[in-house]
Amino acid sequence: MNVGLFVPCYIDAFFPEVGIATLELLERLGCSAEYPLDQTCCGQPMANSGCLKDGAGTEELFVNCFKNFDTIVGPSGCGSSQTRSVTRNLKHRADTKCAHRRSQLGRN
C-alpha cells in the first residue's frame, strides 16, 4: 500500500516528533509511506476564521500533493477532519476520490 503521510502544520511546527513517530510506525507496519515535501497547511485556520476564499490555495495544494496515494494517513483528528471538508467542497478537484482515502491515525 502506497501511503501519503499528512503532517498538519501545527504538528510540524510544535510536535515534529509526532510526525516522525507516525512515519516510523507506518514503516514498521509494512507500509510504503511517503511525506510529500510540497504539503503545507490544510486550510483549517482560514476556514475556522471564515476566510474560505483565502484557504482555497492550500486546499488545492493538499489535493495535488496527495492525489496519487492509495491512502492518506495523518496523526491529527482536526487536520484529518479539515481535509475531509476540503476534498468534498473543492469546485475543481484534482481527484474526487481523495476525500475517501484518508484516515486519522488510531481511528478504526
In short:
With 108 residues, this protein is an alpha/beta fold.
Q: How many E strands?
A: 4
Order of helices and strands: EHHEHHEHE
Stretches where pLDDT is under 50 for at least 5 consecutive residues are: 91-97
What structural class results from the helix and strand content? alpha/beta
Q: What count of helical segments does DSSP give?
A: 5
Major β-sheet profile: 4 strands, parallel
Mean pLDDT: 76
Whole-number tally of structural domains: 1
Distance between the termini: 17 Å
Strand order of the largest sheet: 2-1-3-4
Helix content: 40-55%
Overall, the morphology is globular
What is the alpha-carbon Rg in Å?
A: 13 Å
Q: Percent of residues in beta strands?
A: 5-15%
Output the keywords.
alpha/beta
What does this structure look like?
The protein is built from five helices and four strands; from the N terminus they run βααβααβαβ. It is an alpha/beta fold and 108 residues long. The chain has one domain (2-104). A four-stranded parallel sheet has the order 2-1-3-4, sandwiched between helices. The model is unreliable at 91-97 (pLDDT under 50).
Write the layout of secondary structure elements.
Layout: E1 2-5, H1 9-14, H2 16-28, E2 32-34, H3 44-48, H4 56-66, E3 71-74, H5 77-89, E4 102-104
Parallel strand pairs: 1-2, 1-3, 3-4
